[in-house]
Amino acid sequence: MGYNTVSIGNQGFDDIRENKYFYIDKTGLIKEWWSSGDAVTLITRPRRFGKTLNMSMLNCFFSNRYADRGDLFEGLSVWEDENYRQLQGTYPVIFLSFADVKQNDLQGALWKIKKIIFNIYQQYAWLGSWEGLMAVEREQFVGITPDMEDTAAQSAIQDLCSYLSRYYKKKVIVILDEYDTPMQEAYIHGYWDEFTAFMRSLFNATFKTNPYLERAVMTGITRVSKESIFSDLNNLAVVTTTSDRYSTAFGFTQEEVFKSLDDMGLGERRDDVKRWYDGYLLKDYQVYNPRAVVSVMMRDEFKSYWSETASYDVVVPLINMNFDGLKTAIIEMLSGAEVKVNTATFQNDVEDIKSKDDVLTYMIHLGYLGYNEKKKTAFVPNEEIRQELTTAVGSTHWNEMLLFQQESEQLLDATLDMDGKEVAKQIEKIHNEYVSVIQYNNENSLSSVLAIAYLSAMQYYFKPIRELPTGRGFADFVFVPKPEYKADYPALIVELKWNQNVSTALNQVKDKKYVSSILNYTGDILLVGINYDKSSKKHDCLIESYSKQD
Fold this sequence. Notes:
Helix content is about 40%, strand content about 15%. The protein is α/β, with parallel strands linked by helices. It has 4 domains: about 15-240, Rossmann fold (3-Layer(aba) Sandwich), CATH 3.40.50; about 250-300, no CATH class; about 310-395, no CATH class; about 400-545, no CATH class. A 5-stranded parallel beta sheet has the order 2-3-4-1-5, with helices on both faces. A 5-stranded mixed beta sheet has the order 12-13-14-15-16, sandwiched between helices. A 3-stranded antiparallel beta sheet has the order 6-8-7. β12 (about 465-470) and β13 (about 475-480) form a beta hairpin. α5 (about 105-125) packs parallel to α7 (about 150-170).
């Protein structure tokens, strides 16, 4: 493919292209954004989904500081269109990032933003002596420092747009990356009201009342409501993780991941990469976390890379909220189940979360949960996030969670000991004590309880595969041990029955050769049959060890 190496964490488009580092073509975003005609665009995506690299790409494409740098785009999809070739390097562009504004107090945050604005002015220091500026404007230009008054900072970007537009005789494009990072810190550290008041004025001057603005694009993790910060900004187009637009522009599609793995000689790792880092659904596409995929390509080590760039501090207060059904929902999702969620109730302000659905929706925006638009369900997308969310939940010290984990561990131990009576007893106990909201009506409800009951297995096993296609049918549940536990933990094939018997369940597993699909993944295999009798309200369980000689 012509790549010299895989560069982890490099977010500079020009550097990546100049050094021929690994890059997946996302220049389709340029055409999609420009052709939209939107005056101001806000795009939200979870952490590490390539937002900063894409903003760097837009800057390199449109900025006249990159005039005559069409070489950066040669061989990429946008360069196939002559009309867009003519656009490259033709606009004055102001490119800012608030990614490093993470202060724990108001004055520190304001100073940091003022310093960022000051640094932008320094890039155009020569403008300060341009004869096209009036004397008062030259004075204003010199007055832009990290210690300037709030009012000066709030109008500074609009003023710079004025100077650039008059100099180049062309309106200005403004790109703001990670606009909401300081908002999250303001919320966590308790200076939300004062900070948002400052930002509201800054954003209104930059994006609403700015006659020198051609277009603008912002990125962030979440959308902060118009009432909080985008007051009266009626020209704002919002594109969230639940929107159809730009669905393939951020993150890697499965096709892109698999092709890249093949090109890097890692094609045999497809299934592992999918299990660890896949799971996000954007429109009709399976989307992978780019940072994780690139890290695996470079290190060939499967683990959670989330903690290298993100903290779960923001999610802990959310999952500690005592909304009805929230803790049960979290347990269900950690166990591999999907839960219904109404994303329409969320008002996009972290200080105004009022329900379980608000919490789950916010966690979708943060990337801790995936979202299925068609089913209106939330879920833990992959093994990486499962590990991080489990750690976050563990830090909350839920008594319910601690007790439940103990019960779940007893169930797993009984399964591994092939103690069918104890397994039946534990499933019944877990159903009655922890998930009583699920009423047994059919085999599907039994399946939901079983998924939750085996939560402790997630430490040693991947997310259970439900309805796994096998030799002659579909296995209800298949638990495949993680590679590091393969020698000590058997794979589990679980078949559920409703008002039948456990022998029927095991016979079905054997007759339809359910084991055929996992023989290459594990050593020992246990066959587990579970039946629930509606009349007696009792569970039965029978466990057998499968021999590969059978």
